[in-house]
Each structure stands twice: as structure tokens, then as C-alpha cells.
């Protein structure tokens, strides 16, 4: 097992790694508030006409699966 510079084994926080979660949330927030992030957020709902039909069909397929499970 690798050790840290202080000679201690690193702490493995496992699935609920709070440090990784905090780093991810900070990076995501920073991106969302950045100039590029704001541009991407602004384009989020833009769909090309040729993609719209495929998206609607996929949505209907997904909804039909959900109805089957609700029975």
C-alpha cells in the first residue's frame, strides 16, 4: 500500500467519499458560474429540428416502459 509523505497510509473513504464529493461540487459550481458554463447552460434546450423527432420517439419509448412497470 502506498503511503503519504508523512508516512501514513491514505484514508480510503469508499463509496461515500466526502472529499471527492466536495471537490466535484466545487468544480461544478465554478464551471456553472464561469463564462463558458453560462454559454453552455444557455444552449441546453436548443434542439435541431432533425433531432427533435428522435428525441420525442425516445421519450415515448421511455414512458411506455414506465407504464409497464406501474401495472
Note the topology.
Elements: H1 18-33, H2 35-42, H3 49-70
What is the SS-derived class? mainly alpha
Q: Please, how many helices?
A: 3
Q: Which band does the percent of strand residues land in?
A: under 5%
Query: What form results from the Cα inertia axes?
Result: flat
Uncertain residue segments: none
User: Quaternary state, please?
Assistant: single chain
Number of domains: 1
What is the average of the pLDDT values?
A: 84
Most strands sheet: none
For the CA atoms, what is the radius of gyration?
22 Å
Helix content: 55-70%
Helix and strand string, N-terminal first?
HHH
The number of distinct β-strands equals 0
Give the N-terminus to C-terminus distance in angstroms.
51 Å
Amino acid at each position: 500500500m502506498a503511503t503519504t509523505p508523512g508516512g501514513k497510509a491514505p484514508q480510503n473513504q469508499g463509496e461515500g467519499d466526502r472529499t471527492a464529493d466536495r471537490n466535484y461540487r466545487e468544480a461544478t459550481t465554478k464551471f456553472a458560474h464561469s463564462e463558458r458554463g453560462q454559454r453552455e447552460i444557455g444552449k441546453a434546450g436548443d434542439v435541431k429540428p432533425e433531432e427533435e423527432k428522435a428525441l420525442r420517439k425516445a421519450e415515448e419509448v421511455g414512458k411506455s416502459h414506465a407504464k409497464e412497470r406501474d401495472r
